[in-house]
Design goal:
The protein is an alpha/beta fold. The chain has two domains: 9-57 and 329-436, Aspartate Aminotransferase, domain 1 (Alpha-Beta Complex); 62-327, Aspartate Aminotransferase, domain 2. Helices cover 38% and strands 17% of the residues. It has twelve helices and 16 strands. The protein has helices at 9-16, 62-74, 84-94, 110-125, 142-146, 182-203, 229-239, 292-301, 312-327, 330-351, 381-393, 418-436, and strands at residues 31-35, 38-41, 46-49, 103-107, 129-133, 161-164, 208-214, 243-247, 272-275, 286-290, 355-361, 364-372, 377-378, 396-397, 399-401, 407-410. The strands form three sheets. It has a seven-stranded mixed beta sheet, sandwiched between helices. Strands 11, 12, 13, 15 and 16 form a five-stranded antiparallel beta sheet that branches. A four-stranded mixed beta sheet has the order 1-2-3-14. β12 (364-372) and β13 (377-378) form a beta hairpin. α4 (110-125) crosses α8 (292-301) and α6 runs parallel beside α7. The longest helix has 22 residues, at 182-203. The protein is globular. It starts with 8 loop residues before the first helix and ends with a helix. Bound molecules: pyridoxal-5'-phosphate (PLP).
Length: 437
């Protein structure tokens, strides 16, 4: 397969990079520049970015670029000196949460943040067990990969891990509309699985240090849990002496529209929150936020230092992202464009029997493609890949997610507008029509 700009980048990449790295799309694209919601390839072709959440306020936002450059020209050290920007970032992040959550640790990646959050929970509770969702992804270190049940066979799970059934009300064991008692009953059924997980840990000699949950169930293919599920799950784990950790790497930073954080939609205040991807608008910066009490209890037993985490340049980038979101009204934009997308997806689903379910809110949507609506049989992986590649050839970048690789993923930068939404919907419509014919 020839790379699009004619250079032999693909074979050079194969030589230079480990084979574990994946490339998107049947014909990989060579992106050289980004601006707002647009990406440009080496031939100058423009693509509408409906996939990338890391450039949260748009690719190469001038405020973020300027903040990074200005700070890099002045100073870049670490968190062992007093620095206004690092402190201001902690203060301003704390102000975005419930007043209970105000103590920050800065790291570089979501993996590190989840690793640290687990370490904090284990140190503070004195327990070792962990509860996660089936099909979860939280990162790639040795510890955090074990918490990522989507990433390795169930038979290799450590004894200290319990995996609760994820709240999949479309294809899971308890489905929307099929449970007498409605959402409440669904929430209870799925929360029962958390209780079973905790009981299983006890049988194996462990108490839970925490339950770690991605508030969007992104790797599962994006789930919207039944009302009350997360609050019930958290109270079950807390009753057993564990903490509740919300992994907001995907769901945070206004992604789901109308609230800054995913967990806020579900009426639960976590003990620890994990932030990552969108935080620096493209610059690597991530964080753990907890209560002053938990932070103090951890601090009594452990020091923490992260060489690059929360350095002044990273802090400048993260502060610029907070400024842009607030000044450009991106939270409101995510909510409003999300409602527009919801209407558009409903029309698409009416037209295309291949769409089994559409889930999400704000600027995070999953279009669950099926080979049969009745049985909810997922479309096979290869066919889903062809569809996402066809959408790419039409100049719209999307991804795939879910354990069957059949859920089209839309998760654009937060400044994605109604016009961008209409453009994407038209292209998806055209590609699904072509697939059906
Ligand atoms: C929910 C969630 N948590 C954590 C991570 C890990 O973040 P990172 O790749 O920055 O280590 C990811 C990455 O995809 C994620 O989706």
């Amino acid at each position: 397969m020839e790379p699009m700009n004619g250079n032999d980048l693909l074979s050079r990449r194969r030589q230079a990079l480990a084979p574990a790295y994946e490339l998107f799309y049947d014909e990989p694209i060579h992106i050289v520049r980004g601006e707002g919601v647009w990406l440009f390839d080496a031939d100058g072709r423009r693509y509408l970015d409906c996939y990338n959440n890391v450039p949260s306020v748009g690719h190469c936002h001038p405020r973020v670029v300027e903040a990074i450059a200005t700070q890099a020209r002045l100073l870049n050290t670490h968190t062992r000196y007093l620095h206004e920007k690092v402190i201001e970032l902690g203060e301003r992040l704390g102000a975005k949460f419930s007043e209970k959550l105000s103590a920050c640790w800065f790291v570089c990646t979501g993996t590190e943040a989840n690793d640290l959050a687990t370490q904090i929970a284990r140190t503070v509770t004195g327990h070792y067990g962990m509860v996660v969702s089936e099909g979860s992804y939280h990162g790639n270190s040795d510890l955090v990969l074990k918490l990522s049940t989507s990433s390795y066979p169930a038979k290799d799970r450590p004894d200290w891990l319990a995996a609760a059934t994820a709240p999949d009300t479309y294809r899971g064991p308890y489905r929307a509309g099929s449970e007498p008692g409605g959402e409440e009953a669904l929430a209870e059924r799925y929360a029962d699985s958390v209780a079973e997980g905790v009981a299983g840990l006890a049988d194996r000699g462990y108490q839970p240090a925490a339950m770690l949950v991605d508030s969007s169930w992104d790797d599962n293919g994006l789930f919207v849990p039944p009302k009350g599920y997360l609050a019930r799950a958290a109270s079950i784990v807390r009753a057993a002496g564990g903490l509740f950790i919300a992994d907001e790497v995907q769901a945070g930073y206004c992604r789901l529209g109308d609230t800054w954080w995913g967990h806020e939609r579900y009426d639960v205040v976590p003990d620890i929150v994990v932030l990552g991807k969108p935080m620096g608008g493209g610059h690597p910066v991530a964080a753990v936020v907890s209560t002053p009490e938990i932070a103090a209890a951890f601090g009594e037993k452990m020091d923490y230092f992260n060489t690059f985490g929360g350095n002044p340049v990273a802090a400048a980038a993260a502060l610029a992202v907070l400024d842009v979101i607030d000044e450009e009204g991106l939270l409101e934009n995510a909510g409003e464009v999300g409602r527009h997308l919801e209407r558009g997806f409903a029309e698409l689903a009416n037209e295309h029997p291949i769409i089994g379910d559409v889930r999400g809110s704000g600027l995070f949507w999953g279009i669950d493609l099926v080979s049969d609506r009745e049985s909810r049989q997922p479309l096979d992986r290869a066919a889903a890949k062809h569809i996402v590649s066809a959408i790419c050839r039409e100049g719209v970048l999307m991804g795939l997610m879910g354990s069957h690789g059949n859920v089209l993923k839309m998760r654009p930068p937060l400044l994605f507008g109604r016009d961008n939404a209409d453009h994407a919907l038209e292209v998806i419509d055209a590609c699904l029509k072509r697939h059906a014919s």
